[in-house]
Batch of 4 targets.
Target 1
Amino acid sequence: QVRLVESGGGLVQPGGSLRLSCAASGFTFSTYAMNWYRQAPGKEREFVAAITSVHGSTSYADSVKGRFTISRDNAKNTLYLQMNSLKLEDTAVYYCNARRVTEYWGHGTQVTVSS
């Protein structure tokens, strides 16, 4: 059974930091490209960051570039998103995504940036 379980969300003030984790099981994590997406209230889900399976090459949405860092630990089957200098507009539900021929999604973790 495939599972992607996000954690680490919460309430943080503008300028603060959070580290999201996504624990994967039920598939060969190391062979999948992994991504973070987010969905803010009333908006469509949008791409945040990606990391490739083998070389760990990364890419980011322009809105988070320089503030967020995606990483993975293939030995622990875990994906991370370090989020620094958080802004009000980063408030969203953050989803973990695994993609190869098939695609899997987690249920999301809420990140709220508020003063």
Note: The longest strand covers residues 18-25.
Target 2
Amino acid sequence: QVQLVESGGGLVQAGGSLRLSCAASGRTFRSYAMGWFRQGLGKEREFVVVIRWSSGVTYYSDSAKGRFTISRDNAKNTVYLQMNSLKPEDTAIYYCAATNRAYYTDSYYYTASTAYDYWGQGTQVTVSS
């Protein structure tokens, strides 16, 4: 049973930083791709970034590029999302997701929520202006 548990959300002022964590359990995740999505109030779920666990290859959304960094810790089975220069429009619930179909060469495949089989419960990020 795959479990994903996010943490690290909170309230931060614009321009500040947060680091989200996604602790994964129940599998060996070396063959997985791990994604972060977010959903603002009244908005659709939006892709943020994905990392292929074994290779470390990443793919960022335009809104995340240059401000957010995804990484993983093999020993802790944890994926991190470092978010810098936060803006009020980054306010959302942030979700971690996982799929064992990490073999698609086109990273765009992983921007769709339907590419993922497992989801965490989400962590709230609020950026005040």
Note: The longest strand covers residues 18-25.
Target 3
Amino acid sequence: QVQLVESGGGVVQAGGSLRLSCAASGRTFSNYVMGWFRQALGKEREFVAAMYWSGGSANYADSVKGRFTISRDNAKNTVSLQMNSLKPEDTAVYYCAASLRGRYIGAYTGEADFGSWGQGTQVTVSS
């Protein structure tokens, strides 16, 4: 059973940076797609970024391109989301997600594309 545990959330001023981590366990993830989503208060959960655990291409939402970077650390079995130049509109609960790989990376942008989820970590960006 896949288990995902996020950490690294917090409060940061606009323009600042945060690094979220997702500790993954329960499977060998080499054949998985890992993703990050976020959900702001009163809004639907939205796609942020995704990558193949094995490396290669990543996909980002337009709203975070050039500011956020998804990466993975094989030795630590973690997936990270480096968030720079944060804006108040980035305030949300951020969720890590996992799915078995089967399509091109650009296809993994919806909640239904991922079968395993973490519990979320709160990110608050103050203006």
Note: The CA atoms of residues 11 and 124 lie 5 Å apart.
Target 4
Amino acid sequence: VQLVESGGGLVQAGGSLRLSCVASGFTFIRYNMSWYRQGPGKDRELVAGIASGGGSTNYADSVKGRFTISRDNAKNTVYLHMNSLKPKDTAVYYCTARNWPLQYWGQGTQVTVSS
């Protein structure tokens, strides 16, 4: 099983990034997918989630209206489109796949937002 995130980097406040997570080794379409993040000195927190079929999404209040999660089941890929980035969005972003009781994590991608 692999979850490989990409798309992180350094961006100025107000900018945008798109994170991608490519999955392999399991039946992607059967798994709910989520993005978590962990900022410096902070606990890991849920950012956004999308159901296996893609019809249902949920977001942390702190990112609603700025971030959009989506998935392409044909490409085994989940995305996180991040707009209007703020310095407080600086964190390592992790992709996760869940189909209880199984859960898989990626290695993370760093997002740094400068003021």
Note: The radius of gyration is 13 Å.
